[in-house]
Amino acid sequence: MSLMLTWNMQGGQGSYDSKWQALAGRIQRPAQYDLPEQPAIVFLQECSDVPGAETPQGWGQPPANITALSKNFGTSSRPLTYFIAHRRWGQGNNRVSYAVLVQTDPVNGQAADLTGSVVVHGPPQGAPGTRPIVGVTMGTATYYTMHAPSGVGAALSRTYVSDMIAAAAGAQGTDDYVIGGDFNCQPGDLYPQANPIPHGHLYESGEGTCGVRNLDYFTANGSAANRTALAQVTRINLISDHIAVSAHY
């Protein structure tokens, strides 16, 4: 199994560079931070722009409003390269931009070009929240980062998340997917047992990730016969106003 993590960097607190440096430390030295391995996939929210990233020459064209980037978290002799699908969002420093990072084997010291695997789903017209989900397809599954709207209440949060899950699951509801992110709603409010969201199964740590509120977790295929199962969902020592959460897949 491989490791994934989701983290809202909370651009309103501290410097972005220090947060990217903190993430780099977990990638470079996972055991030092009690991680079992380097994360293969990272979902980020409120990440602003990506320091030290570039778009290599010759890469393909990603979907509209997405920037495809390569970032080496290692060294030139020992590269740790990640492909990044980045969506700029917000005014000024693009504080609430978000991204999905996928570890790749290095190609000439840079990440492999996965621009052809980037997938974007926008919320339906009139739905609460305007941010689309952005994903990268790896193998049979697509891995999406999501930042749900805040301050809209549980009912509207559920509407937005339900719409995004339906889009990720595809027209037949059988597409393999994982969504990681800041759901801005606690699991029990978003996903009551008496009224589960179709095609979505929540994987959460059971602990607060933003103060006492549990807002950061994952959802994946919902049917028992067709599920991208996650395991060992837990908070990790990577903290802004939100605590990062990891899972094995």
UniProtKB/TrEMBL annotation:
One of its GO terms (molecular function) is exonuclease activity. The keyword Electron transport does not apply. Keywords: Endonuclease, Exonuclease, Hydrolase, Nuclease. Residues 5-242 form the Endonuclease/exonuclease/phosphatase domain. InterPro entries: CD_toxinB, Endo/exonu/phosph_ase_sf, Endo/exonuclease/phosphatase. It holds the Pfam family Exo_endo_phos. It comes from Rhodothalassium salexigens DSM 2132. Coiled coil: none annotated. The keyword rRNA processing does not apply. This is Endonuclease/exonuclease/phosphatase family metal-dependent hydrolase.
